[in-house]
Specification:
The chain crosses the membrane at residues 7-28, 71-95, 116-134, 140-172. Belongs to the chromate ion transporter (CHR) (TC 2.A.51) family. One of its GO terms (cellular component) is plasma membrane. With 173 residues, the chain is an all-alpha fold. The chain has 2 domains: 2-133, no CATH class; 135-173. Helix content is 85%, strand content 0%. The chain has helices spanning 2-15, 21-35, 41-53, 58-101, 105-133, 137-152, 157-172. Helix 2 crosses helix 5. It is globular. The termini are far apart. The mean pLDDT is 87.
């Protein structure tokens, strides 16, 4: 049954994605496109773009959109439940133990190894999405301009997205 498959796929994604939504993107891509074939590469990138623009965590938004695209409202509910289950369980356990173990040198050493790995996963996801989203020299210019606006100005990311959308309408229509 596809709803159970969605739950299990996103449960796996949620269990092995330390570091947040962007870290999940390569795992989502592997599960949803390569393992199950529920979406095409283009559909996946479009859903990630929508998940980025909507309020909330990108992982939850992605799971909800992919679940809905795959199996309707129940698919959205089960995919979302799957991706949040591991975090919910871990946060309940962590809340009970964090004060007792956080200063432990073994825990600190583990975090020291996890932080750089998380950065690598985020960079890998960015490169992966860029490979599909950058289709011509104009999209390269859009990407560089948006990056510059985010890094060198105090513009809010929503404003940068709005500017990019308007520029896309003007140039691509």
């Amino acid at each position: 049954m596809i709803i159970l498959q969605l739950y299990m796929a996103f449960l796996k994604i949620g269990m092995f994605s330390i570091g947040g939504g962007y870290v999940m993107l390569p795992l989502i891509q592997k599960e949803i496109i390569e393992n199950y074939g529920w979406l095409t590469q283009t559909e996946f990138v479009d859903i990630i773009a929508i998940a980025e623009m909507t309020p909330g965590p990108v992982a939850i938004n992605s799971a909800t959109f992919i679940g809905y695209q795959t199996a309707g409202i129940w698919g959205a509910a089960f995919a979302t439940a799957g991706v949040v289950t591991p975090s919910l369980v871990l946060m309940v356990l962590a809340a009970k133990m964090i004060n007792r173990f956080y200063e432990n040198r073994w825990v600190q050493a583990a975090f020291g190894g996890l932080r750089p790995a998380v950065i690598a996963l985020i960079a890998g996801a960015a490169i992966y999405v860029a490979g599909t989203a950058i289709t011509d020299y104009i999209s390269v210019i859009f990407g560089l301009a948006a990056f510059a606006l985010l890094i060198f100005t105090k513009l809010h990311p929503i404003v940068v997205l709005a500017i990019s959308a308007v520029a896309g309408i003007i140039i691509y229509l």
